[in-house]
Amino acid sequence: MLHSIQKLFVLATALTILAGFNSCKPKTAGSAVSGDAAQKVYVAPGEYDEFYSFTSGGFSGQIAVYGIPSGRLLKVLPVFSQDPESGYGYSEETKPMLNTSHGFIPWGDQHHLAISQTNGEMDGRWLFANENNTPRVARIDLTTFKTVEILEIPNSAGNHSSPFITENTEYVVAGTRFSVPFEEENGDIPISSYAENFSGAISFISVDPETGKMAISFQLKTPPVNFDLSRAGKGPSKDWFFFSTYNTEKAYTLLEVNASQRDKDFIMAVNWKKAEEYIKAGKGRKSKVNYAHNTYDENSHTGISEMLNEVLVLDPTELEGIAYFIPCPKSPHGTDVDPTGEYIIGSGKLASLIPVFSFTKMLKAIEEKNYDGEYDGFPVLNYDAVLHGEVQKPGLGPLHTEFDDKGNAYTSFFVSSELVKWNVETLEILDRAPTFYSTGHLTVAGGDTKKPYGKYAIAWNKITKDRYLPTGPELSQSAQLFDISGDKMQLLLDFPTIGEPHYAQMVPADLITKNQKRIYDINKNTHPYVSKGEGETKIVRDGNKVHVYTTVIRTHITPDNIEGIRVGDEVYFHVTNLEQDWDLPHGFAIMGNTNAELLVLPGETQTLKWVPKKAGMIPFYCSDFCSALHQEMQGYIRVSPAGSNVPLRYGTGETAPGMSTAAR
Ligand code: K7E
Ligand code: CUA
């Protein structure tokens, strides 16, 4: 018996190894961590971490904020999904943030992040985030850690190649993964007409330098390839963007085979300054589309969703000098630009080498028209003319590359599960470190900017297998922190992540902490239903709509006794938190409400909609432990049948209905 189980086990192990996933703990796993690792990640109680890592939550639609080097989870930022921790997407004020041309979308897929830059360095003002499924780009204000803007991207599907930014945050880009017919064209056509009727789109979103407000400045209409990732140039190449493409085969079925036919796909180089010139000269045409632009007003604490209906479209095949194709081996995934702006790295996920292109050589090839023909009207530059060199035998399945402050590159490998360090100039491989397992992106602090901080790299892993205590069919995704300050990478720490980590931005803590808003002045609250003190609380009935002006403060709710609510009423609790110092939120929860709860932050007003369904006594309370008497922070609502004539009465303490007579 035992014998056959052992046999089965050996067979299963052999099979999993053959399948490429080693389900046994490899021998190197334990020994990969050296003695001083614990000391390097230990942040003593009360001490702060050195860096923030803003990490994508993938299919959770959220962003997680970790302290580095400790790996402690500090916060989950709600962006593209409703969040039961903060009430985002549940309160009437925040629901408009999740509006799109398809209606309310409560759950998105978030992959990439970009911190705003000034002169090519992170400035810590805003964090931009993409939504992959229903194309959107969000902006988070890093003084408040709140999502303050979401812009839908039209003529696109699968906003994967986003949100990458220029060195002074002039533009955030959004390149479509799926090509589709443009919205003004008829989409009710045979899928087999892909090559003729489908198009790609790259959107250039301008960012207001003062307010951060986004607007689609223009779109480029492209052949129907899949755009995967992108990077802006830097320094000498700052006027350019580089986009990786795959499926230049124009396949529309079984892409795993049909989009892997060609030996080389392309990196598309786009001169956005040139595009601007054409726009100034009146080129381009208006395309009819529908897309939502949602903005959050910090003073009224309210989101507004506006529908826009046109974008400016440029056709780069008609306008010379905007776009060129650089051949890049085998379905490139990441494309990355080194801190000097001279080298462009393509990571062909099926390639056995990493090509490094030279920006100087690219300009020369363009100048000399050193083309290898064209692709759908775009000049294709000669591979060898643009190539700086190739990193030979780097590993299997290169995906993404980041840089340190010493001229080194770090590439993540999905298939061979490792980080590989190499020199950007000499292309020599300097070190490799195994990861556990199957790394997607990696992040070095400032590793995508002109000023990398070096010190740490984090591998964001897709598969953890045996690394943690098991948690059912869904095992935790994982991050691994490496010390990259020496010649060799040193594994320091594993920590589990929220959702699936794709990309992340690691920032020195003081860039963020120095801007934190601490006081939320109630007098600046411009919400139309604010109560700036308990004296302003009241209930106003307007037909079957009932507006309850409510306040919360440690440790009571005003009013906390309410009578005269009827079945069939639509009740809006406009709850103002009278506290003004950060870290003093109150909760607000009503039994049986479909949107059960709110979290009301200091100085703000949030609205909970409640439709009582039956007569009876309904308690409500504060759901966030706010003081020693938090458990006393509660009230009652008397609900009468429809048509009842119980008068509307309300109050707290002395003014509670029935209280004044009873007390006398
Ligand atoms: Cu490589 Cu969506 Cu950036 Cu994930 S993507 S890994
Ligand atoms: Cu307010 Cu608990």
Word description of this protein:
The chain is mainly β and 664 residues long. Helices cover 10% and strands 43% of the residues. It is globular, with a radius of gyration of 28 Å. Mean pLDDT is 93; it is low at 1-27. Bound molecules: sulfanyl-(tricuprio-$l^{4}-sulfanyl)copper and dinuclear copper ion. Dinuclear copper ion (CUA) binds next to loops.
Strand content: 35-45%
Largest beta sheet: strand ordering: 6-7-8-9-17-18-13-12-11-10
Outline the low-pLDDT stretches. 1-27
Number of helices: 10
Spell out the key features of this protein:
43% strand; binds sulfanyl-(tricuprio-$l^{4}-sulfanyl)copper; mainly beta; 664 residues; 10 helices; 45 strands; six-stranded mixed sheet; binds dinuclear copper ion; disordered N terminus; ten-stranded mixed sheet
